[in-house]
Specification:
Elements: H1 11-23, H2 26-43, H3 51-69, H4 71-93, H5 95-106, H6 110-123, H7 128-145, H8 150-159, H9 162-165, H10 172-179, H11 187-194, H12 199-214, H13 221-226, H14 230-241, H15 248-268, H16 282-287, H17 291-312, H18 318-351, H19 354-366, H20 373-388, H21 391-405, H22 410-429, H23 434-443, H24 447-474, H25 480-506
Length: 508
């Protein structure tokens, strides 16, 4: 029976997603999806594997062990542990409590706490992993005080991670997209041209602010937002008792972390290599950077500086600082476990050639539907990223197809924008996406709760974006500038109308 390169290649991811949403237990759901993928691989005669030994080898050796041992993945795991340690350091030094006390006098409303979270998420545009964990650790004491649920905080973190990185020319995502442009064109320049047509990312930001100021929720999010947590009161008491720390004990380590991570990324891209042409070009260094290596270098340097700083301030002894290492690791264990299983599931769908199957569908349907092509690409990218849990993998398969199918012209730019927007949308919705997982970790929110509360919001923006891409395709003959203006007017009007209808129906 043929499984590789067919619809069956998507079934393991679908099984994992359905089980996670039904059982609300993500670990076993992901593992069952991995087992299904290994079974399908062995069943296909073209795989070259057979029998129980072939199943075990593909499940563990080629699956779990190979994916966890991948150098890029190991770098991300190290980065997460170091970030967890940084958070533990700031908490033990009293920086988080001091920031909570400061926020009492400067951030006085629930809306203010949410807006501050959104603005911080937009400011940390370098990398989505860094964004998720940093924004969560900094803003959670503030949102707890003002009665913002963990689920809403997780949504705000997730919605300012990938959607912001995909419209920031200086980010690891821009570097990834540029790396998939293989025909000699300046990938960063093409990325910048596509930003105004990334409707999903931009409308997501619009929706976040609109939901805060319109003061309503819908879907399962409303249930969590209405519930008052006793933990908020205990968090306030803790903040009042902890007085040895200062606000600078939180702000300075985070600022150093941001600066060092930027330096680490451009270092990995050759910026400080005197023999390289990128020595004088910051953008080229970002394009050539290895996010995994750069973030590890930057976060390690920031961790060393933070330990020295807290010891000089005499708020932590060296022994207490070292005790934060296992504490940081323990805090990140659930997210690390989910990430490892999600990476393995992605490896299973890759071995079954799920991406190639979807790519064939794109190439087969694109020829006669140029007017609706942006919307079609958006939907396919959504589906592929949702099923595989990776937007970068979606970029890698669809962007080269768009470039090959449309060598020049406005349709090329809008199609690439649709690919990026759809990939981010699918990544945003997927329970097995690493960004979604780390947003849950950053907000200390139950992962399945985060996914279920976020989905209605993400689907709303996705539906508006889909219609906007149809309008963009229809008006493309008027020129790219006029098409963009008309599309944005229609998209914003549709978003406003949708939200007003939602508030009228669910506002009470």
């Amino acid at each position: 029976m043929h499984m590789i390169g067919t619809f069956w290649a998507l079934v393991p991811a679908i099984v994992a997603i359905v089980l996670a949403l039904c059982t609300k237990e993500v670990y076993s759901s992901l593992f069952i999806g991995i087992v299904v993928g290994a079974v399908f691989f062995v069943i296909d005669p073209a795989s070259g594997a057979s029998g129980f030994s072939g199943f075990l080898n593909h499940l563990f050796s080629d699956g779990l062990v190979a994916n966890i041992a991948d150098s890029y993945n190991i770098g991300i795991l190290i980065f997460m542990v170091i970030l967890g340690t940084m958070v533990a350091l700031m908490n033990r030094a009293g920086g988080s409590a001091a920031f909570g006390n400061w926020a009492k006098t400067h951030i006085k409303t629930k809306a203010g706490a949410q807006v501050a979270t959104i603005l911080l998420g937009i400011l940390i545009f370098i990398d989505d992993y860094f964004n998720c964990l940093t924004v969560g650790s900094v803003m959670k004491p503030v949102t707890d005080k003002h009665g913002v649920s963990k689920e809403k905080l997780a949504y705000l973190i997730d919605a300012t991670a990938a959607p912001v990185c995909i419209i920031a020319p200086i980010s690891s995502w821009a570097a990834a997209v540029a790396g998939f442009v293989t025909e000699g064109e300046n990938g960063i320049a093409l990325f910048c041209k596509a930003i105004p047509f990334n409707f999903y990312a931009l409308l997501t930001i619009v929706m976040m602010f609109a939901m805060v100021f319109m003061k309503f929720e819908y879907g399962t999010m409303s249930k969590y937002e209405k519930a008052l947590s006793i933990m908020n009161d205990s968090a306030d008491e803790l903040a009042q008792e902890e007085t040895k720390g200062k606000v600078i004990d939180l702000i300075l380590p985070v600022a150093v972390l941001i600066v060092f991570c930027v330096l680490g990324m451009i270092y990995s891209g050759g910026f400080f290599d005197g023999e390289s042409e990128s020595y004088l070009n910051f953008i080229d260094a970002f394009s050539n950077s290895d996010a995994s290596v750069g973030l590890v270098i930057g976060s390690t340097g920031a961790l060393i500086i933070a330990i020295i700083y807290f010891m000089c301030r005499k708020v932590l002894s060296f022994k207490n600082a070292m005790a934060c290492l296992p504490d940081g690791f323990k805090a990140m264990v659930p997210a690390i476990l989910i990430l490892c299983l999600a990476w393995t599931l992605k490896g299973m769908t890759d071995s079954l050639e799920a991406k190639q199957f979807v790519a064939g569908l794109v190439e087969g349907s694109a020829a006669g539907l140029k007017m609706f092509l942006p919307a079609i690409i958006f939907v396919i990218a959504c589906f592929l990223a949702f099923a595989t849990g990776t937007s970068w993998g979606t970029f890698g398969i669809l962007i080269p197809i768009c470039i090959a199918a449309f060598p020049e012209g406005a349709i090329r730019i809008i199609s690439i924008s649709a690919c990026m927007a759809g990939a981010v949308c699918g990544d945003h919705c997927s329970p097995i996406s690493d960004t979604t997982i780390m947003a849950s970790a950053g907000a200390q929110c139950d992962h399945v709760n985060h996914v279920s509360t976020q989905l209605p919001y993400a689907i709303t923006v996705a539906a508006v974006s889909f219609v906007t891409y149809i309008i963009a395709g229809i008006t493309l003959g008027l020129g790219i500038v006029l098409s963009g203006i008309i599309s944005w007017i229609c998209g914003l009007a549709l978003m406003a109308g949708t939200l007003f209808l939602m508030k009228k129906k669910f506002g009470k």
